[in-house]
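Entry type: protein chain
Record version: 2
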Amino acid sequence: MAQQALGNVQPASTTVGLPATNNLANPAQSFNVQALQFQALGTNTSSVYIVDRQTPNLALNVLAEIPPPSATPATRPGWTIGNPTAPAALDASTFWILPAVAGEGVRVTAVR
């Protein structure tokens, strides 16, 4: 089991998301992992949604809403999903990031 940083994912759109694998050479290719963590960037001013499709309905397709960070006390909210009993059970390319404010996003880390 090894951790792999997938980098910051910061979509320029508030209606069309980017996959968690956006920084890989082939973002659409399956990238099987045991766990994923999404952490708010320190500069976010609003929520970032983790959704199950590129152009989601926010009333139906939100897996998690990550609120903006706080300065006092300093926090970096996040969301983690995984299955410790099934290695490679999740496909990171099927998790999409959609910010409420264009250009904001999350830091993505995978456990393979």
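Comment: The CA atoms of residues 51 and 59 lie 11 Å apart.
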